[in-house]
Amino acid sequence: MADVTAALLTTADGRPLKAALAEAQSRARRRAFLLVAPLLAFVVLTFIIPIGQMLDRSFHHDGFSANAPNLVEWFDANPEGTVPDEAAFAALAADMKLMKENKTAGEAGTRVNYTLAETRSLITKTARGADKLAPPFKEALLAIDDRWDDPAVWQAMRSSASAYTADFYLSALDMERAEDGSIQRVEEQGRIYVYLFFKTFLLSGIITLVCLLLAFPVAHLLATLPMAKANLLMILVLLPFWTSLLVRTTSWIVLLQGEGVVNDILLSLGFIGDDGRLKMIYNQTGTIIVMTHVLLPFMILPLYSVMRVIPPSYARAARSLGATSWTTFRRIYLPQTLPGIGAGSLLVFILAVGYFITPALVGGADGQLISNLIDFHMRNSNWSMAAALSAMLLAGVLVLYWLYDRLIGIDNLKLG
Amino acid sequence: MKKILILTTALTGMAFSAAAQELTVMSWGGAYGEAQTEAHVKPWSAATGFAAKMTDSDNPATPIKAMVEAGNVTIDVASIEYADAIRLCDEGMLEPIDINALPAGADGTPAAEDFIPGAVTECAVSTDIWSNVFAYDTSKLTGTVPTTAADFFDLEKFPGKRGLKKGPKAVLEFALIADGVPVAEVYDVLGTPEGVDRAFAKLDTIKSEVVWWEAGSQAPQLLADGEVVMTTAYNGRIFNAAIAENKPFQIVWDGQIYENEMYAIPKGAPNKDKALEFIAYATSTEGLRAQATYISYGPARKSALKDELLYKDGKTVMGPHLPTAPENMTNALETSADFWVDRNEELNERFNAWLAQ
Amino acid sequence: MAAASHNDAFVVFDHVQKSYDGTSLVVKDLNLNIGKGEFLTMLGPSGSGKTTCLMMLAGFETATNGEILLDGRPINQVPPHKRGIGMVFQNYALFPHMTVGENLSFPLEVRGMGKSEREAKIMRALDMVQMGKFANRRPAQLSGGQQQRIALARALVFDPKLVLMDEPLGALDKQLREHMQFEIKHLHESLGITVVYVTHDQGEALTMSDRIAVFNDGRIQQLAPPADLYERPDNSFVAQFIGENNRLEGTVEEIKDGRALVRLNTGELIDATPVNVSNKGQKTLVSIRPERVEFKAELLPADAHLIEAEVIEVIYMGDLFRTVLKVAGHDDFVIKSRNTLGQRVLTPGEKIKIGWAPQDARALDPV
Fold first, then answer.
1. What are the domain boundaries of chain B?
2. Distance to chain A for B285, nearest Cα, Å
3. Staple partner for B247: which of A361, B126, B241, B310, CB 3.0–4.6 Å?
4. pTM given for the model
5. Which of C60, C106, C164 shows the shortest C-beta gap to A321?
6. Which SUPFAM superfamilies does this one have (chain B) (predicted)?
7. pLDDT digits over B174-198, tens only?
8. ipTM strictly over 0.85?
């Protein structure tokens, strides 16, 4: 009804009202858009494109497919399970020559090596002597290395022959392709990623919870103290930001290690014996303690910003209505701090999931998290594997985000 | 997608690409980067009059791939690990270097004979040899002291915590050497599944007593804090603690696993010819000797070891502190770049799974 | 309602003192009895101690010295939630995360009341403020006036005997405020509850209260019904604070038959009623309400003293004229005259004579 009326309305000079309104506002909109355009461009360039690239890399790797055209052709023509014939070995030999010419054996070998270990050196070695290859190619290639007869090698090359592959995601789930192309779990000794994903999320959850328990009273104190004292306390809260992460981590090592300050104090007070020194670092405990310290401000600040604007009159009202101080806290104060709790927890959790320096330095044998392995693959230029792991981490965080939205509501989020 | 990659990398690269008429060397920073700056970059610039500067990276090999793919190479020389030099060369990311373009030794020996085997590859030249060793604190371990790799794993003879690098490389080899595998056969054994199991089984014997370290600086710190009675470490770090900081640390060279550190030129370097000149200068007998006066990593030329070398303090004789000293080489293993290029991912996964058990 | 005696008073402040910092008193020796069913307003400028008194009564502040009694029982040691006092806050303090119904249900729930009883009480309270249809709304979805009604309903829903209101209408616009004043007054009368009301708005205080306690500087300056306060202020602070008033300074010339003759500092003689003066020669401040000043001599007593005035400005205000005069050296003397048929309208610059009945001018303490 309202729409119909609006459509019929015209301006004084007879133009439709809607068109006139749109015209009047479009100029203001254009100016507003120009204002945000630099930021938009910045976000697209530094955030959306890199994430897109990362996702692309996680299932796209043309290191082998682009450099072995003859083999790709042969794999396309012959279905999975075909025993390599002389034509296949001829294609292999031709590609090896091509790789030697273009210096791409390493690139191609690297890709195949991701699927099957030790094929990289096989390919680079064969490519080095590719000039001397002559028919019959099967014998010639087997003379260089008898592994060319191994069906696993051919299966590995087949799955590398497509630029698009789910192999990296398979590896990230502790799975692999068997020689016949079916998917199976890797040997128990090699299963690590699923366990680490689980542990990363669990540890991040614990850290988030500890941060929340510690930050809540501090934030409340900050929000209720007079301004001058609150500012001083705020400086103390932010102090950790002023020193480098490495320095902070190192000082925790000095404090917590077996021969460290805390143990020495406990020893001199007689709480523990010399052989009963507490193991507080180079294990999960250490990771939790140090990461909680590092991430605590990210919990305090959103909580503080929410608590600061809760007027004390709410608590007074509840008290005057007959509520005890505990009921007042539980039913009146706590629910109103939920946006801060949500924002702080999300922030701390996401940061904790991505941390790797701290767990690397104080985590010891069992403090390793998934980001340490992402870092490892980055350093070894296996970007596809790092990208696949990152994408799964991203997916995990998005699932949690979605859960948060369903349970608490994303509009109940206050970051500052 | 490649276009976008090029675009973004070019954008980020713009910040660096201002100086064209200047040679840029990228190294690891810290005491190591400083040694190369003092021994190579500054003197070369002074001798040739061509501007040169040093930049740092966590691992100079990492940015090379991105730069070459994007066609925007901003560095001329990079100091990279041996395995990376092999890998990047295979992938066509490095300029080839002709060994005959390198100067003869100070005693006139041609470069091809003067460099120790493996020190010059198709695309890179060794700037020094560094080593994974283990060390202990002489003020804490008195009486019987460890002398062999096997002693490191002997908890009965030497009870107490052990520091070990958190990663399979040089750790699995060390375990096998300690288990009695001759150095010449280590990679053959490690190439088999049984060999890998054997290495992990050896590590299992001390697993409960191990404190794992990640950054090179952690190892001497663990030793100094008394957290461990002995630890594996990069030999230069222990040398620095012992000589520069007067810590009572003793290196055990038995079972050392050494490796060449390489200078290489990324493909498409802006000052390719000058970069080659720089490498020739830096890897000459004098250049290698100069670097060794700053840090205890050994020169890879035989001629550089003929005369006695002094540390920058002017009194410490470097010879016995270098991995390349004959008395340190009696039971030593050279890291196999080929092995690790092939098996790094697989063994790393296995190693992490083993750690988490 | 007459002032209750100490014994049957519902709320008693007995020599109450309050200090926040230990060096100065914000409430100085407060004695106040509030009768059952009374509507008492604490009126005063900010910082006068009125809100502190209310907070001590509610239990959010503790008296530094003295005793507060509620229904004969000392309550200094009783925590706020056990006092059973309803309270309406300045900014309503409706819990934003609860619906209107949940807000009202809260005091009943903490008292362990059953569901059906709760619902009946909530409906009754909402109907009382004509908000029966809003039980499922959130406070943020209501207008200021509606929130005010809900706050009122919440303070009343658990049937408290005493309700405290801390400037509850401060955030409303004028029209709504006047309407709510009427409603609150009406509720007070129909429920028979005792109300202690804090405001700095004298109009509000005069409209609603049985008695008003005027606070200044930590003390009650005057405690009286509204008419007394307006017509017969005890001292110059009250005279000045309540309503508009003209002040003239002078010296008492003579006091006779309940009338004082005051010689102004500029020499003129005026009539006044002595309040805080008793002797000839005393300094005094004479207070006269603008609507009691007359410039038509025929309407004044024959023996009234008249003084010269010059019209400076005439402001038309619809129902009345507000005229600013220059009198005895002051150019802020105001008179108000009703806009009746045939009223004489003054013009600026005009010279006139003004006067008043002696009982309308009060000779108070000099400031």
1. 2-129+261-328, 131-259+332-356
2. 31
3. B241
4. 0.77
5. C106
6. Periplasmic binding protein-like II (SSF53850)
7. 999 999 999 999 999 999 999 999 9
8. no
